Structure formats: structure tokens, C-alpha cells
Amino acid sequence: MPSLSHSLDVHKRHAAATRVIRIVLQARTGSSRLPKKILANLAGEPMLVHVVRRLQSTWDFLPAPMRRAAIERRLCCELHVATTDGADDEATAELCALLGVPCFRGPRDDVLSRYLAATADLADGDVVVRATADNPLYCPRRTAKIIALHLDRGGEYTYVEDLSYAVPEVVGVGALRRMATMPLDDYCREHVTPGFRRNPEEFRVCRLPPDWEGLRPEIRLTVDTADDLERVRSLFAALGNRGDFSLEEAYSASHAMPRSSSPLCDAKSDRIRPCDASRELLMP
């Protein structure tokens, strides 16, 4: 858990800022299909380290007015990890401490509660970005762009259709709190945001197409299984085992790799349920 001095520092930053943008990265070792995958070795480091670094790079790609606001402390940009309170995630919390990243801990399956706790100190007008630690190839440039689009359009929930492996979701903190008061089943609470997609008439939902900004959803860049992990390891190896390559470089390398080890495959998401999108606003 963050120390008291850290909490006071955060309070001071928030007091000076007119808005806070907080990436909350959900991470746990208890995956049923691939336990401890977030700590698995990827190019010499735990996979979680790569996810954190790529998401932290988002701030370098914000539009100039937003970067200026951050420099002037009118905008506070930060990343926190939300893990479980189980003993098996002591290692997750310890790694976060080594990285200097605040770590909030909460229920294993009620991930929505984790997000509410990890944003409890924020104002309704602040923004939370939902990211997951099984996506080691988030694109910082596109992440910055979806945040800026969310703010420009005045959205309450902005996402890429089918949930992109490379671009996280963006949510207004007030909207998250309002959604959490609705009747939600266990699936919605575990996956945090289905309540927005199931009730688009209740929120300003901005749904972006799967190929937004040149995304390639047919290239599977997530880690759910051991096979996924080996494919991503092969991709990193093909790019020199460095973690700072662009999404475009990853796409190109995927095409050049042997089919058996390439992430190029059917990447249809199995993590969300169909919802009534008729009232959502499809953004070009």
C-alpha cells in the first residue's frame, strides 16, 4: 500500500491540478489459464514491467496543450496498479514497490470494487484509464489519443469495439461511480466496464471501430495462455528483445515471422459479451 508521505504528496499534486488522469492497471497472479503470467519472463524482465513502462510512456504523446498543462501542474497524469489482497499477490505488490508505482489491493473477483478504491481520492470530473496487465504491447501514442478524444468529445466511456489489446478504455470517474450503483451481475463486476456497454442509454458512450487509428485486431497481442506467451516472446526476440518498439514495428515483425510462432491469427475477443450498441455513438 502507498505510504502516508506518498498519499500527502498525491494530495498536494491533486490540490494544484484542475484534473487528474489516472491509469489504473489491473494485475493479478491468479489467472486460471496461465497462473503468474504477469510475472513471467519477457525479454529478461517480468511482463508487468513492460506493461507499466509502455503505459507510462503515454504522457510523452499527449497533445501539446495537455503536456503544457501537466508541466504547469494544472493536469496530473499518473499510473497506479490495482491487484488483489491475496497472499499470492504479495509478489505483485513488491514488484510495484520496486518500480515506484502505487499499488492498491482489493477483492480478487470484484475488480470493479478495486477500481472504485483505487480512484476514491479523485473527483467526479477526473478520468480513469482501465488497462490490464496481460496486454504487454499497449500503444502509448494511441492511448494518449484516445484519452484526448475522450476529453474533447465530453465522453463518459470511450473504448475500441471488442476491447483492443493495444488501446485501453477511458472512463469518467463520476460515470464509473454511477455505473457501480446499478444492478450488476458478477460478470460485470469482474470485468469492470460491461455495465457501460449494456446500458449505453445511461451514459455518453463513444465506441471506436476495431481498426481505429490503424489497429490490426487480427494480430493477437495479448497473453491469456502459454501459447500466447511464447508467441509474444518470439515477437520480442524478433525485435531484439527491446521493449520500446512501436506497435507498427510489432505488426511488421508479426508478418515476417513463421506462422507457427507469429501472433498473426484470429484475435476475436472472448472477454466481453454482446451488448445492445444501438444507442452508442460510433466515432470515426
Please describe what this structure looks like:
The protein is α/β, with parallel strands linked by helices. It has one domain: Alpha-Beta Complex (Spore Coat Polysaccharide Biosynthesis Protein SpsA, Chain A), CATH 3.90.550. The radius of gyration is 18 Å and the shape is globular. The N terminus and C terminus are likely disordered.
Give the class from helix and strand content and strand pairing: alpha/beta
Largest sheet, strands/sense/barrel: 8 strands, mixed
What Rg, in angstroms, do the CA atoms define?
Answer: 18 Å
Whole-number mean pLDDT: 89
CATH topology grouping? Spore Coat Polysaccharide Biosynthesis Protein SpsA, Chain A
Order of helices and strands: HEEEHHEHEHEHEEHHHEHHE
Read across the widest sheet, the strand sequence of neighbours is 5-4-1-6-8-7-9-10
Per CATH, the class reads Alpha Beta
Q: What oligomeric state best describes the polypeptide chains here? A: single chain
Portion in strands: 15-25%
How many structurally independent domains? 1
Structural features:
single chain, 284 residues, alpha/beta, Spore Coat Polysaccharide Biosynthesis Protein SpsA, Chain A, 8-stranded mixed beta sheet, two-stranded antiparallel sheet, disordered N terminus, disordered C terminus
Put the structure in a nutshell.
Helices cover 37% and strands 16% of the residues. It has 284 residues and is an alpha/beta fold.
Write the layout of secondary structure elements.
Blueprint lengths: L3 H13 L2 E8 L14 E2 L2 E2 H10 L7 H8 L3 E10 L5 H10 L3 E4 L4 H8 L8 E6 L7 H14 L3 E4 L8 E4 H8 L5 H6 L2 H5 L6 E4 L17 H13 L8 H10 L24 E2 L2
Parallel strand pairs: 1-4, 1-6, 4-5, 7-9, 9-10
Antiparallel strand pairs: 2-3, 6-8, 7-8
